Amino acid sequence: MHIDRNALEHLLDFVDLLPHYFIGSNADLPIVGGSILSHDHYQGGDHVFPMMRAESDQTFSMLRYPNVRGEVLRWPLSVLRLRSGDRGEILNTCVHVIDTWRCWSDESVGVRASEADGTPHNTVTPVVRRTNSGDYEAYLTLRCNVTSEQNPLGDFHPHAQWHHIKRENIGLIEVMGLAVLPARLVRELEAVKEHLLAGDLTGLDTDELTASHAEWARQIAASHPEIDTLSADEIIREGVGLVFGHVLEDAGVFKWDEMGRAAQRRFIEAL
Questions:
Q1: Which site in 152, 203, 241, 266 is 20 to 30 Å from 214, CA atoms measured?
Q2: Span 49-66, mean pLDDT?
Q3: What is the SS3 assignment for 67?
């Protein structure tokens, strides 16, 4: 499995054949791949994901590719949207962005392109679709799989405080804003609801189904003293959504703070 010119050509071929569908691929490195890396893994369909509706925070252009419009999306992950009516030019632009990112390091935000032995860390999660006007639209989500003592599963991976909801890798569908959550949560969150409705906050710690959720569940109880049988499911679901938002923020290589914005601008200028 590789994210390269050939893979991007496959994505473009697909939307040429089925222009009403989007298609994307998981990334091609461990941690950020979200898939079994021994096979090509494409996903597509006729759906508009939240990422596709995200507003543009910044527009940019590249001298080498004058017919391509670039945008930085206001999204928890670091996503560049490229748009052009010229298939060849948007293909070349995507390859240029990916090649630049693969070699990009910025220690100020913890991004390191590779190890001393050449082991790579940077890649992208690509998504392609056609607009109503027929233009090609490519979404390149910048990914980095560096690890540290503080975050042994990945610095740009769900951090430990969110593992009670989501510990697994962030793949293509999640990048676009749809949470793919573990099946264990069906039983666990039902047990959380029972404790909250019974007012049994201390029991959260001793119940094996809820112990990992105990601190989070008490925060929900404090924020929603009005919780009852009619509102419990919606309140818990909203709480899970907020955690998933933090998970996506963890996966973003350029955070939405002053340091992250400055690093993002440096990368854009390098293009």
A1: 152
A2: 96
A3: strand
Return the SS3 of 132.
coil
d(CA 195, CA 207) in angstroms, rounded, equals 9
Residue given tokens 């979404």 in the structure block: 139
Structure tokens at 99: 């090649």
Residues with Cβ within 8 Å of 110's Cβ and at least 6 positions away in sequence, in order, are: 144, 146, 148, 155, 156
Q: The pTM is what?
A: 0.95
> Using one digit for the tens of pLDDT, what is the confidence trace for 62-115?
999 999 999 999 999 999 999 999 999 999 999 999 999 999 999 999 999 999
Q: Is residue 35 predicted with pLDDT exceeding 80?
A: no
Residue 215, both tokens: 């601190």
Closest CA to 140 of 46, 245, 70, 63: 70
CB count in 10 Å sphere of residue 46: 9
Q: What angle do CA 101, 172, 191 make, to 5 degrees?
A: 130
CA angle 205, 230, 236 (to 5 degrees): 40
- Positive or negative, the CA dihedral 4, 254, 241, 55 is negative
Average pLDDT over residues 136-164: 97
DSSP conformation letters of 161-229: GGTTT--S---HHHHTT-----THHHHHHHHHHHHHHHT-STHHHH-TTTGGGHHHHHHHHHH-TT--T
Alpha helices in the chain (DSSP H): 5-17, 87-102, 172-175, 184-198, 203-206, 214-223, 232-251, 258-270
